[in-house]
Amino acid sequence: MNLDDKTIFITGSTDGVGRVVALRLAEAGAEVLVHGRDSVRGESLLAEMRAKGNDKGRFYRADLASLAETRSLAETVTRNHPRLHVLINNAGLGSGPRRNERSTSRDGHELRFAVNYLSGFLLTHLLLPLLTKSAPARIVNVASLGQQPLDFADVMLTRGYDGGRAYSQSKLAQIMFTFDLARGLAGSGVTATALHPATYMATTMVRQSGVAPMSSTEEGAEAILNLAIAPARAGETGVFYNGLSPARANAQAYDEKARAQLRRLSRELTGLSEASP
What is the pLDDT of residue 216? Predict the structure, then answer.
């Protein structure tokens, strides 16, 4: 597929499956905006893109454990680019390596909830005007089959902390957000989908969790690209995929009251108004 006229932004794209996706999109001619915390890896990725004949790439450094840096990232992307056709929220933390050690973001939120979910929630909302202006456009949230219901009495897991639970509830929150977003964006030309790309890919995240890889990053990349650019997925919204196939998420994702509760909490934590979708 020729993507010469498309601008695509991928968070967490200097390593792992995000890097593979970025290179595949660059090979297809897209203007690929890549993100990470490490400038050296970012510049290395851009050099690899140029070696493949695409010099349109741009690297943005930001720590998504900070809502202020997330806001600044959205503002910079909006200022530098007149259009955005695909946003892939891929950045995330796994369950390890110290599963029982609770950490917090710069804003004081449980770290996995902050990085895996809350930053993407904020970034997406701040980039919606650009995506809507560029419609048809797509939002793809890279989630997981590892899902656990949110306990709204202790979302930040201050009692009996476990990194696996923290990861799994953050991923379910992503899916709940996807379903909410799809409804709010109906008729706008912007779609929202979520997926589990592949099981235990050969990534740093998986290795740090102490798990032996079972899938390749290329397999995961294929699943992400299916939702991000495949013509067959045009117009498809409010769905969850397991790899290349539609799947059913945890029951809480279909609970409208739970989604509304998460939406209110997320807006409160990020300072977003009720006016946005």
Answer: 86
Residue 199's pLDDT is 81
Asked if 167 is an active-site residue, the reply is: yes
Predicted confidence band at 100 (pLDDT cuts at 50, 70, 90)? confident
Among 161, 167, 241, 254, the active-site one is 167
Task: For each of the domains in the chain, give its residue range(s) and CATH number, in order of start.
Answer: 7-270 (3.40.50.720)
Q: What is the predicted pLDDT for the residue at 106? A: 97
DSSP string, 26-85: HHTT-EEEEEES-HHHHHHHHHHHHHTT----EEEE--TT-HHHHHHHHHHHHHH-S---
The per-residue pLDDT of the chain, averaged, comes to 94
**Structure pTM?**
0.94
pLDDT digits (tens, 9 = 90+) for 211-223: 666 678 999 999 9
